[in-house]
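Input.
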Amino acid sequence: MVKKYTIKDIAKKAGVSVSTVSRAINNTDDINIETKYKINEIIKELNYNPNPAAKALVGRSSKYIAIIVPNIHHSVISKMVQGIMTKLEEYGFDVLLLDYNESREKEEYYCSIIDQKMIDGLIMITSIAKAEDILAISRKIPTVLIERIIESEDIDSVFIDEDSAMYQLLEYLKKKGHHNIGFINGEKGTSSAELRIKSYFESMNKLNLNYDENCIIHTNWSMLGGREAFNKLIKNKCECTAIVCASDQLAMGAIGAAYTLGISVPKNISILGFDNFDDGLISIPPLTTLDYPAYKMGEVAADCILEKIKDGRIKSKKIILPVSLIERDSVKSII
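Output.
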């Protein structure tokens, strides 16, 4: 029996989404000429004859992009979503927002059902999902990741220069005379936490700075997590003079814990953040951190998904955005 090929077979062989194949079949203008030619050649090769009803159905665009986020209440995540939505609205796209509230089980559920939703593309922010699950989705739906990198020809990634960011913070502390520097990181297994702990160790080594395992801790991505982590570091007799936190929320939680314990920031210990949380400017003391381009990251991710949907772009992109130091009052010079 001769195999009857489907539109999904064509998409897989061409390395594009089903919606891109549909646009080629329907001869629409919003597709790259080279991509359209490649798809048409595969159609001829496989002797594919689309069903007219299926052709019409698949050819419709839902004009919805799904965004899977860990916690919409986080200032940085919220800014990313704002950047995405503003850009997509310019092109007539709406958003389906799925918040898994930092639950692995809930994100896994969203990943398992996402291809059943009427969406044209997917943007995932700081995902903790398994790489193989995301790869499976990307073969069916145009996919862009923010703050996560998965090596794939199908997936775009938008992220900051993590190594430069961490190096700037640690170099700044070294210039202020700090050599024993602790680290409060986010939850193990999350993409941002994995990137930041790697950058922390590499930058500490490059700068010939000391680290003590008793002064490195993982916690959940929240102010409460930062408070609990700081309390544990003090209980473990961590003797660092400064602590870098993997987010401003963690840093503000640590500052609150220090106040409760009667430890003055920055007189007794210096604390730095990472992503310019809105309230960091009015914390006591105002938080030294990084000028993190959250809104811009959202805009860039939206541009990427639009290119994949409207232009049929196949080759993946990895886009790195720069960061810079914001010096406030939470660090003391001990030279």
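The chain has a mean pLDDT of 90.
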